[in-house]
Amino acid sequence: MRIKIINPNTTQRMTDKIGACARAVARPGTEIVAVSPAMGPASIESHYDEALAVPGLLQEIAAGERQGIDGYVIACFGDPGLLAARELAAGPVLGIAEAAMHLASMVGSSFSVVTTLGRTIGQARHLAQAYGMDRFCANVRACELPVLALEDPRSGARERIVAECRRALEEDGSDVIVLGCAGMADLCEHVADVLGVPVIDGVAAATQLVESLVNLRLRTSKRGELARPLPKAYTGALQGFALDR
Ligand code: 2AL
Fold first, then answer.
1. Is the pLDDT of residue 102 over 90?
2. Looking at ligand 1, which residue's alpha carbon is closest to its atom 5?
3. Does the beta carbon of 9 sit less than 6 angstroms from any atom of ligand 1?
C-alpha cells in the first residue's frame, strides 16, 4: 500500500525527518510518500498559519487521489484541514493529534500533551474536546520553543522537552505523554527511555492506524457529511480549487 504523509508546513528538512520516522514504523510492503505542499507557511504555530496551510494541503490530497494513494496522514498537531481532506479522499485520512490522543487513551488513565509554543495550547485543547478525548487529557503544556527550533541541533530542544514532560508527570498526575508537534517525532524513543512511561508520537501512531484501516478495507464514508464537495466556481487565487464532480 502507499501512504502519503503530508507535512503541511513547507520546511523540507522537517518533512524528511517525518518521512523517516513514518518509514521506521511502517510494515514491509508499505510505501511512505512524505511531502510538503507547494505553498504554505514554513511552520504552523498560529491560527493564521493553520488557515494558510490548508489550501496547499488540499492540493496534495487531490494529487494523491490521482496517484492512487491508499491513505493519508496530516502531520501537524493542529490537524489542519482534516475534515476537508476527508471530503476529497476515498481512503482514510488521519491527523496526528487525533491518532496520538486516541492511542494515549488506550495505554493509560490520563495524558499530558507537551507542545511547542504556549499560543498553540488552545488548539490542542479544542481538538481534545472535539475528539471526546478531554476526559483523558490532564493538561496541555508548552516548552515555549518555536517549531523550527526543533530543526536546530543547538536549540537545546531535546532537554527542554524532556524537562517539560517530567514536570507534566509530576504536576498533572498523568501517566502518558503525547508529543504535541510532528517535529518531535524523532525524540519519542529518547523521551520514553528517560521517563519510563508511554510516550506517543502522532506520526508513528497515525501511520500505523492508517495502515490498519487500509488493511481492514475501511475507507472514508461518502454517505453524508464527508461526501465529495459539490462542484462550483472558486474565484481569484482559489480558481484552481474548483472540483469537476
Ligand atoms: C506543529 C506541527 O506539528 N507542525 C508545525 O509546523 N506546527 N504543531 C505545533 N503545535 O507546533
1. yes
2. 44
3. yes
